[in-house]
Sequence to fold (425 residues):
Amino acid sequence: MHNEKREKVVVIGGGFAGINLCKRLDKKKYEIALIDRNNFHCFPPLFYQIASSGLVESNICFPFRRELKRMRDVSYHMGHVKNIDLEKKEVTTSYETIPYDKLVIAAGATNNYFGMDHLPEETFGIKTVAEAAHTRDEILDRLERGALCKDPERRKQLLSFLVVGGGPSGVEIAGALGEMKKYILKKEYPELSPDDVTITLVEGAPTILGAMSEKSRNNALKELKELMVNVRLNTVLKSYEDKYVTFADGHKEYYETLIWTAGVKGEPMPGIPAEYIGRGNRIVTDGFNRVKGLEDVFAIGDIALVQTDATPNGHPQMAQPAIQEARNLAKNLNAGEFKSEFKYKDKGSMATIGKNRAVADLPGLSFSGWFAWMIWLFIHLISILGMRNKLSVLMNWFWNYLFYSTSLRLLLRPTKYPLRRHWGD
Fold:
């Protein structure tokens, strides 16, 4: 038992930022409540493998209660945040109201449709576990329906896939679909020909993987083309209605399935006034992750826009900045004073396109191919929570590597309840 009164820290979001903060905060000094609408921590870099039937959801998800039982004085509260009362210092969720002394917002990011409000209902995403699983079901549905279709033109329509966004997520899901087209169809869908399947990746910028080196971008482009993926650069989507895509130049094309990976924005946080929200719906903080203008409120991870003279546009919305921000904030809170300003240490970036196909930019080094792919596998494997999950993922990867085959191509639709984006909404 702790004799002295501890401050109550409420952490919204159990992603990379939130879970690392909970681990590192001094439990003798703080009582911690973690709020998340899901009851598990997940590993977003591998969502595309759920969507492409390479892994199942349980491989990359780990229950909060299992993880937190090793952390004394950290409680988990399931719920979707409905309001933050800054005056009363309370967070209201779908089910309860929780008081706080200090509030840390680590709610992450969601899809950014750039004002095209109808797209969430028409397209498929891989930003959450539920979205990735839903996208997997839709891909498998198209394959099964295509295998039954006798009309060649309609079959080609059914098997037309468009990936919007040339960042790592877009490149990885497009590569996974390309592997399916090139290697899996002939084994598991003998009714179909690779010529029946169209996979197109469009990117509005002049290049894919814009944050990576020119060498890596060129290598990724070459690998995608080898996997029979059509890549179109300088191509902007204007609308998508009735399965027809209209591009900015006015050109129209039919795509049965559109997978959206084109951008992210901060999760909406009810109760945080608009004047504290910056570019990309991110909460503006100083170099110590303190929300500018608010007392005892902090933001870390994808939702935080850490603005300093050196970083006016914040940091990349990726795992490493989130983890490093969490560790730095914990260090300052544990010390009881803010002396350590956050400085992001870029450890590099990677993307995988398929088996033996990856690109990596590490400090002072850029490489691709089998070696980059092995490093990508290793880094992602050690980052997954739970030894059982690590072993399951390793076994799936090993089996797929040997046989290009998986028992995970299961079309599992909900039968009673419709898919809801957020429980508790």
Observations:
- The domain at 119-262 is CATH 3.50.50.60 (FAD/NAD(P)-binding domain).
- The chain has two domains: 7-111+265-335, 119-262.
- The first strand starts at residue 7 and ends at 12.
- Residues 168-188 form the longest helix (21 residues).
